[in-house]
Fold:
Amino acid sequence: MVVCTHCNEVLASPLACGGCESIFEVSSELSPFEIFGIPISARLDRSSLRKKLLKLQRLLHPDFHGAAGVIMQGIAEHNTAEVNAAFELLRDEARRTSWIVESLGGPSESSERQMPQIFLMEVMEWNETLEELKNLEDKAVAQSGVTDLKAELNVQRAELIENTLDNVESNLKQEGNAPPLTEIRRELNAVRYIDRALSEIASIELSLAS
Amino acid sequence: MAFIELNVLNNEPTPVVGIDLGTTNSLVARYVDGRPIILKPPGHPGSVPSAVYFSEGEEPRVGNDARNHAIADPGNAIFSFKRFMGRGLSEVTSDLSSVPFDATENEHGVVTFDVRGTKYTPQELSARVLRQVAAVAGEAIGSHAPLSAVITVPAYFDDAQRAATRDAARLAGIEVARIINEPTAASLAYGLDQKAANEGKEGGHTIAVYDFGGGTFDVSILLIEDGVFRVLATNGDTHLGGDDLDRVLVELALKELTGKDPLLSAEDAADATVRQAIRLAAEKCKIELTNNPAGELHVQLPELDVHWRRQVTREEFEHLAKDVLMRTLTCCRSAISDADLVASDIDEVVLVGGSTRIPAVRTLVESFFGQKPHTELNPDEVVALGASIQAHVLAGGTRDILLMDVTPLSLGMETMGGATSKVILRNSPIPCQHTEGFTTYADNQSGIEFNIVQGERELAKDCRSLGRFKLTGIPAMPAGMPKVAVRFALDANGMLIVTAKEETTGNVSEITVEPMNSLSDEDLEGMLMESFENAKEDFDASRLAGLITELGTMLQASERGLLNAEDKLDPETLDELEEAMQAARRARDVKDVARLKEVEAVRDAFELATLPLAAVLMDAVAKTALSGKSLDDI
Structure:
């Protein structure tokens, strides 16, 4: 537990004190969880994470340090940027679990490239479907095909995410039957394949709409 | 505590205002007594047309005066220069085709307008408008022109365009408290934080701001929660605006005027004056169509004996404008998708910009979002009003409101082979930062050059280069040994700051980073000096004019006084007075501003010489009053 050097209040984040509204320059690299002052966990409540972001930015944002001199403004800007980056990572389930996998000593995104043959077959199938849909003359048919594929991928993605969240939690709790981190990484890589297809779908949808 | 300092040092706090530096008009607002107001001096509409006119041998004129000259003397009245801010010549060819003046490029790749033999950058012209706007503010407040302002830019402005805006403010002698995005500012003006708080919807209140101005289109999706306005995504087109709607009518007119049985030859149709006349006729017709079911396209070119009228119905106009309007929806779809939402998730829609007065635009927005958009505030004023609220926040006036904006475009670096490696993604919340490591290829290499680009395309050449940055001062070491950490940061203005340090030797600040292809600091210094000199000259000229008027009044008064009191003055005093009057008569003919001091001395000497006369006259007045006569009788 760290307390504020100015007012002895327990710090909710090492970047700022909610009690006396002091902001602090931090030299070492802080993890996204440390910045938000929360324990490492795969499951986070979206709403409380958002509230925490707003609370921190109310203390840190350079808008509120305009008259505080160049040095303090620099710290405010730096800290705000750190909080923004941490929030972007924490709010995204895939990025969050990916970060935890690495912090637990698991393989990184680029070091684990093997995917099950059966999954790669599936990927090839979507890509073929996407190519066909892109070249369809009939916009309505294309749109309904895109909608179907999107729904299917979203279901698959949600299942994968749920699975990885559980698996990461059980690793964090050091449960005996916790699956190996390499397996979680493969699941996360599968999510990346799906996300790539979903962003392709989004751009097809945009071009169909206009 | 820090907030108090400012007020203690200066007796009166310097007002921080909000300025909407628009393509067509510019406006200034200030937060007073709990609400934002547009600053309008008595008898002044408040808004300043963003135009500068250069007349022969006179001081350039800004605003209304300049706009009025756009027809009569098209090549010398420059407007719409916001479209050229932070741009190179090759990027503005389509903009140039729709304006009656020409542009070149200076040695730094900055667009310049050549007017009467002098080159002006869009920054300098914008500075003139800003100075005028600040003067309007000063007049309305009844104090000095404000020195600090929040200035708005289209959300989709890139770094170079933002930097150009900041440079314009510097040239105008205005400190930029913050550059904020126009749609974000507009969301503040509607006070939707109050509404969000009252409704208390779990997960916050989602707003879409549809900002269709004279030259640019922006859409921003915001989430309001606990007084924090957080932008989730923004999209837009810096080349899509009301001007494009004028253009469809111009094209209609040109097609019919030069088509079958032409009234206008192709050669005449290309003439700048003719173009300008047709453009204004189109604009007028467009405005008529906003209030009436039909408008008249009326082109009058007396020199060419062309008097052409044509009815345009709303239906026809909407058909012609369809492509332009559909492009705005494409931006809306992208923004909503980037925010991970669908159109029906949006709780409220706000309309901003003059082009949203067009009924077809309102219908389109309503059907797209499935709800009536907010139109209660004047769409031309809402941005300036919002900017003044942000100015109030920055001046320490409130902590109830916080704006958290995003960067509209991804920031990347050109890699080997010309691809882009993205370091900051679009719609990332700002401020943000990213550090990238570099090393050297050759032994004792002292510098590294890299190309920073902004945009979404895969190839660096398809994105906009913010210039090649050069790192110099790397200590002599074998190849691959130095570890240079380059930090790319977007500040709260959405502007790029690049800093570098060499990590092996611990040299922190020895390395310098220089952007190329923009106004250099020396350029700015030079322009600043010039503008100060001009400002001094302007000031001296008006002082001289004032003195000459004053001398005239003093001469009249003295001549009248002498008629009554000549006999009551001793000869010596009388001689001195006559002499001073002679000098004053001569000084009234002075035209050269350089002789200002001389005229001032004449006025001072004259005033001294009239003192005895004044005393005699006062004495007479007093006596008359005492003797019971009315003052009118004297």
